[in-house]
Amino acid sequence: MVKRGLYVGRFQPFHLGHLSAIDAAIKEVDELVIVIGSAQYSHKANNPFTAGERLTMIRHALEEANVDYSKHWIVPVPDVHLHMLWVSALEGYTPKFQVVFSNEPLTRRLFKEAGYVVKDIPFFERQQYMSTVVREKMLEGNSWTKLVPKAVAEFITEIDGVNRLRDLAQTDRVC
Question: 94 lies in which domain range?
């Protein structure tokens, strides 16, 4: 039987901390299901990228890091705004998995209550590698590209992601 793990994130954007977490998790399982959470959200300052763009970022980053494509799945999953239904909804979108990798308290609690083994992920310079920090640096015009894989920086540049984020931040302030 294939031992499959699950790792959930919003990846807004995908950064080196995410890559480190995936690297740690994938060493413990045969395959890793990477769930793009809140898949239906985009074009807001805290969720600037679409599910398709986030999927592309992850795929490019894993290819650049030489992660064997046969060792992972990337699955976008929309939010279900009822905690009691979230795990079962997620199960409907993903291949079966046995273990969940997460440090997020609510995610850990919901999967434990559903009977899953939940494992910690070693944080990789957590204060620096957070999507919020990356987005703040983009907005402020500070150097952000060193916080994400090179392929992700190139993709964000290609889609004019920094200017999109700046436009969205202005829109969010006006609304």
Answer: 4-174
